[in-house]
Amino acid sequence: MTKTALVTGATSGIGKAIAQRFAKEGIHLILCGRRESRLQELKSELALLTKVTTLNFDVRDRTLVQEAIMGLPAEFKTIDVLINNAGNAHGLDPIEAGSLDDWDAMLDINVKGLLYVSKAILPGMVEREQGHIINIGSTAGKEVYPKGNVYCASKHAVDAINKGMRLDLNQYGIRVGAVNPGLVETEFSKVRFKGDEHRAEGVYQGFEPLKAVDIADIVYFVVSRPYHVNIADLVVMPTAQASSTIVRKKGA
Ligand code: NDP
Ligand code: 8X3
Fold it and tell me: I need a surface site. Which of 60, 75, 144, 160 has the fewest CB within 10 A?
């Protein structure tokens, strides 16, 4: 049976790579993000491989999230797989110097946004007693690193929500799991450092980071297991990384 997947944060990085991987497998796609031109560009690319539609919303806007998902065309209304991926870090500051706007952004997007999207999609999964939710967490949801404070808190919240969803949705036969990457080279650090490309590039220098496609391959593996198999919680790091703070860098 052909599946339909909704991917948040499909305009860049991990979400885009997941969409591209799923398209190769013929999974129908609902691509979500705020940058409309990128959504349309990706739609044109992937429509050659599978059925694609797009939804443009900011995950922080609960009304827009609900309206967008409720307004999906009939052929995309049955969502089998939800990839809760949209999110970013904003800033890297010691707690006493953190920006309130950065804190709001991380908690509103990474935590509340994930909840708003899930809330809109869950009723259909509950009714059908079928569905698969994959939450993109992070190693930052498993440990806390210096200056990571609120970003780590947001990803610890994703870890807790992942566990809570699995407990509560067990009675409906819905699969819930998290994929928690370490350092992946995407636009993540560019966003964290507010467009400072030089600083962002520095994060991934001296070692081989994960690529978005590495995570996409894993996510496809997770969704393509037989239905009785649920990969509940998976952590993946570059070989050079042992923890959030221990990374084997050349010349270091
Ligand atoms: P990118 O910056 O490349 O992608 C982030 C995506 O999230 C974009 O598509 C962006 O789309 C979307 N997004 C951000 N804010 C919003 C918003 N308010 N509303 C809707 N969509 C939004 O980063 P990554 O691909 O690396 O990040 C994806 C996920 O992976 C995040 O949850 C991140 O925390 C997690 N992660 C990343 C790691 C890394 O090292 N890169 C490691 C571990 C986890 P748009 O701007 O168009 O809305
Ligand atoms: C992204 C990984 O270590 O930059 O979640 O926080 S890290």
Answer: 75
Q: For ligand 2, atom 4, name the residue with the nearest CA.
A: 183
Q: What is the pLDDT of residues 118-138, one digit of tens each?
A: 999 999 999 999 999 999 999
Question: pLDDT tens, 162-195?
Answer: 999 999 999 999 999 999 999 999 999 999 999 9
Please tell me the residue having the least CA distance from ligand 1 atom 20. Answer: 58
101 CB-side CA count, 13 A: 3
Q: Which residues of 21-40 are buried (b: 16+ CB within 10 A; e: fewer)?
A: bbbeeebbbbbbbeeeebbe
Ligand 2 atom showing the smallest separation from residue 152 Cα? 6
User: Is residue 152 within 6 Å of ligand 2 at its C-beta?
Assistant: no
Relative to the CA of 244, which ligand 2 atom is closest? 3
Domains delineated in the chain: 4-236 (3.40.50.720)
Q: Give phi and psi for 36, each to the nearest 5.
A: -60, -40
Q: For the full predicted model, state whether its pTM sits above 0.90.
A: yes
